[in-house]
Structure prediction request, 65 residues.
Amino acid sequence: MKISVNREACTGHAQCNAVAPEAAYDLDDDGYCAIDVVDVEPGLGEQARQGAGACPERAITVTGS
Prediction:
């Protein structure tokens, strides 16, 4: 499973990290998602999906199972 972030669409709401802090949604110093593509650790798939769903800009895609 992978998380992909369209960093150009991210506006720094940081809701992905607030909802799913363990699912690899690392933020920069300004609150913007600091990742492009990252593998989701085993057992964190549901949290990764919840974090993506919390993004008001829909800038995050979770793929795989």
